[in-house]
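If you are new to this repository, start here. Below is one unmodified record pulled from the training split, so you can see the exact layout before writing a loader.
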Amino acid sequence: MTDPAPGTPTGPALTAALIEAWADGMADLREVVASLGEDGWRHPSLLPGWSVADVVAHLAWIERILLGRFDPPHEPDWAALPHVGTELSRATEVPVDLRRSRSRAEVLAEFDETVADRHAALQAGSQDPAEPATNPFGKRVTLEAVLRMRTFDTWVHGQDVRLAVGHPGATATPAARVAAEQIAGALGFVWAKRVDAPVGTSLLLEVTPPGVALRRAVLRAEGGAGVAVEPPADPTVTLTMAFDDFVQLGCGRTRPDSSTEQARSRVRVAGDPGLGALAVERFNIAP
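And here is the target side for that same chain:
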C-alpha cells in the first residue's frame, strides 16, 4: 500500500473525521429531502424500484442495526417487487417495504432519532480506528472500515436522491472524499479479479474535478493480488475520467442525464486497449 497523503489524520483524529463525514452526509440527505416536501417523497430515486422515501428508510434501518435495534418480522409481497432479484436485495428490501405503509413524518422522525443516537454513540465510543467492530452484515472488521463504508453508503445514496430529483451537488465534501477513496480502494480488486490482468501489469487511475480529484495506481503482483503502488512512469493502462463518471461507473448507477455506455465512452484510455476496455467495463464495485 502507498502511504497516506501528508496531512491525512490518523488515530483518534481519523475516527473523528470519519464520524463527522458520515454525519455531514446524513445531514445533507436530510436537507435535500426536506426541500422536496410531500410531493417529492415518493419521487423515484436512481435505484430501480426505490423512491426517495425508500432511500431514507434504508439508511435509517442500517444505522438502527448498528445501534442494536431490530425490526419485527415482515414478509413483503414479492410478486409486486420485480426489481428484487438477489439474496442481498431481498434482505435490504424487507425493512424498506415495512416502512412503506408509514407516513413521511413517521419515517423522518425515525431517521432523525436514529442519526442523533448513532452520532452520540460513535462520539462516546472508542476513537481507535483499529478497534474491532461489526458491520451491518455481521462481519467483524475495524471501526475505520465500518465508518468508511457507512460514509460511502450514505453519500452514494444521497447522490441517488440528488440526481434523481434534479438537485446535483455535494461532490466536494468530506463525505464525497471518503466515498471516492472507497471506490478507488477497490481498484486492485478490479484489476486483478475483474479484469484478470497479467502479473506485472499496472493500472493508473486519474479522476478529475469538478468534485474529488484522485490519482491512484495498482499492480498485479506475483501472488495474484492487485496491490497499490506509486504511480509508475509507464503504466500498462491509464484511465482518465471525470469525477461524475467515476462515481457512476464505480457504483453501477445510471444517471438521468447519462447512460452507462455514455459514461464509459467518456473515459480516456491510454496504453493496452484490450485491458483498458475491460477495466472500464468492469469498474463497478458496488453490490
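Two things worth knowing about this chain: The chain has a mean pLDDT of 95. The CA atoms of residues 18 and 147 lie 6 Å apart.
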